[in-house]
Amino acid sequence: MADTYLGLVNTPLPGKLAKTLGLPRPAVLRRYTPGGPLVPGPVLILGSGPGADTLAEALLGWDQDVRRHLRPGEKLGAVVVALDAVSRPEDLGAPLLELGQAVRALLPGGRVVSLARPAEEAGDPATAAARQGVDGAVRSVAKELRAGATANGIVLRDGAAADSPGALGALRFLLSGRSAYVDGQFLRVSAVPAPEEPADAGAPLAGRTAVVTGAARGIGAKIAEVLHRDGAKVVVVDVPAAGEQLAAVANRVGGTALQADITAADAAARILAHVKERHGTLDIFVHNAGITRDKLLANMDPARWNAVIAVNISSQLRINDELLASPVFSPEGRIISLASTSGIAGNRGQSNYAASKAAVIGMVRATAASFDGSSRTINAVAPGFIETDMTAKMPVLTREAARRLSSLQQGGQPVDVAETIAFLASGPAGGINGQVIRVCGQNLVGA
Amino acid sequence: MSNQPGAGAGTTTVRNAVVIGGNRIPFARSGGAYAHSSNKDMLIAALDGLVARFGLQGERVGEVAAGAVLKHSRDFNLTREAVLGSALSAHTPAYDLQQACATGLETVVGLANKIKLGQIDSGIAGGVDSASDAPIVVSEGLRRVLLDLSRARTPKQKLAAVSRLRPRDLAPNAPTTGEPRTGLSMGEHQALTTAAWGITREAQDELAFASHANLAAAYERGFFEDLMTPYRGLTRDANLRADTSLEKLAKLKPVFGAGLDTPATMTAGNSTPLTDGAAVVLLGSEDYARANNLPMLANVVDAEAAAVDFVSGQEGLLMAPVYAMPRLLQRNGLHFDDFDFFEIHEAFASTVLSSIAAWESEEFCRTRLGLDGALGKIDRSKLNVNGSSLAAGHPFAATGGRIVASLAKALAEKGSGRGLISVCAAGGQGVVAILEAR
């Protein structure tokens, strides 16, 4: 579904008019292109903690232009603010006020990334207060930024170093165009052993095999495409009735199509048998298949309620049970489940859907806890308003409102969800486990 | 006539040819979901579904062989054109084959033989037919005028050519399933055979009912999930009537054999309708399958073709498989008892029943087939266990691919045993073949 207003407001005259009238001016987001620059300009590092020096060094290692001070008149691609050593709320003022000046110099599509430690791991209330303060400040900055710029944070868990592979992987993701529609979010990373460097930086998933359910269209099809672009072998799964579109997706991504109803008792067995025969090992499982059967709860019938629960959560639980018991699933396997901002905030007319998506979050957290000490991870991605066939069917005014209600003043694209999933599937995301990453442009809903 | 010189093909093969899998689009009734799809469209759809199932994108397959019975003259290179339109490598060679309704099975036999001889490592066999998008031929008069017109140089010559045109020349020749040499439709030919063998209406309806029930049950248990890819909104064979009954079938009026002395028994329920569809089968050597981590469902063991003289009326049009069968069994040292599945193409219910009756007839087998006695009985519980053409429909050249893929999967599910295929064809021809579980 094309966002006509977005296109219009990015042409000279209507753009000027929108500015004069104070109308929303959504920007064309900076998205990832293979081989393109990581950020659109120099990276300014603010903050006095050990993280500042460490990240400066890492960024220099990535051949980025690194600045430690704002230069008058120079535009910036990103600002990294290291707040990993704050111990009193008063510590926040100096670096954040400096950030305030720096964001004026931010280029369109620029990035602000904070580095902090978790409040709940603080030894004393003042430190916890300061750490929690970062959360509010960064979320506010995200709402103040314009021209497609975003602000997100990295939270170093369990004493992870600022240059731990997980932290650097998260930094790279948040700086890049891959995180275009991720805004006002915090990636909580633990220290994990360094992943193997991919032979080809453009194919971080080379040699991995991924299964994507619900892959015949929309977000699922795009997930398959992005995983393929990043080097993975992809098995696309969807119900037999969607087989024609599924075959087209498989042929586009050089993968294999498996027609299966994921609610069937033998679905996991069939998927595992297919992967074992064709690829040997399963590295990535993306639970994308989902349905909506919207009705106000007062008008809800058992068929609608049960169908949504069966597809959106029961199938995932059953498949995960078999996956985790199977030798085909890699010891470093990744599971990524599609949640929804409806599951976080609730949504009128979607009690069944919201229940199923909140249930996904519950499942992800519990399963993640059982992964402690292993190299497997499970995470959820919660899309906000994404431009798909499904949202194209919304009433015009509701759709227009939903688009403008986010900090980026537009709906996301399926590729934005897919990029986050591909990141979570990659080696450097090994320290991210049990998280719910929202891809919602910092939508007010569920914020 | 049953003695073939030379040792059995089963002992002289260089290597095995295996069925790796198949794909077909659901079969549509003529004028239905695929009314505006060409043979090329449907064959591409079937190929692309196969490519997607087995991850063959951009692969140079050894050879693709397919064909269509109702074929436009512009489709002289139908299969190659379909390959070029598919996700396969453009370096994949292809050829067209046509043997009426045996086209699909014969492509399997031809490519399997090439694989056995080591000429190719992989192949895709199949066929397609559209009764909806059938070619319409202009009258012979109009055709001659048009050809003369294209050769005419002066206005006078052109005028002379056009002036020969008569109103009757403008009526096109509609496609028929009539036999060129007898003018009889296939149904009327079969009606003669049906009467000759005394096949009852009840027996035909029972076979038709079993076909629908078996096909519906196969869908129910997901049998076609890895054999079929939906096309143009169709997800199941449009001809399938899962709720049909013997009572409903008994109510249908006979459509063939009305002019015979015996009661007419052949109805729209126990005859196949005109159908649109396509089916393909992926074949390969064992090395090819292993190197590409592909499944091996069944071996293509052997095949035999036969033809009968139906023009003189000496034999029924669709009885040729009856003659091919003993030659095939003898060459491979096998009897009906050695088989777990029988796939006898249901052109008409009475075709299957006439064939079975002939094989059970001591006199027929002695006098016509040159055997010492009856060839044998077929265990009906092993016949067309996942449905056949009466329920699925019969897009002529696509039927062979449908049968081979379904039988190979049934054998793989069972894990042992053999399957026997019998397909009759226009022109008094027929092909029979043996698949074996691995």
From TrEMBL, chain A:
Write out the GO biological process terms. Answer: monocarboxylic acid metabolic process
Where does the Ketoreductase domain start and stop, copy by copy? 208-389
Q: Which SUPFAM superfamilies match?
A: NAD(P)-binding Rossmann-fold domains (SSF51735)
One short Pfam name that applies is adh_short_C2
Q: So which domain of life are we looking at?
A: Bacteria
Family classification: Belongs to the short-chain dehydrogenases/reductases (SDR) family.
This chain belongs to which protein, by name? 3-oxoacyl-ACP reductase
State the species of origin. Arthrobacter crusticola
TrEMBL record, chain B:
Q: Identify the residues that the record assigns to the Thiolase C-terminal domain, covering every copy.
A: 296-436
Q: Which GO terms describe its cellular component?
A: cytosol
Please provide the record's keywords in A-Z order.
Answer: Acyltransferase, Transferase
Q: Where is the Thiolase N-terminal domain?
A: 18-287
Among SUPFAM superfamilies, the record links this protein to: Thiolase-like (SSF53901)
Q: Provide an example Pfam family for this protein.
A: Thiolase_C
Q: Does the keyword Acyltransferase apply?
A: yes
Q: Which PANTHER family match?
A: ACETYL-COA ACYLTRANSFERASE FADA2 (3-KETOACYL-COA THIOLASE) (BETA-KETOTHIOLASE)-RELATED
Q: Write the protein's name.
A: Acetyl-CoA C-acetyltransferase
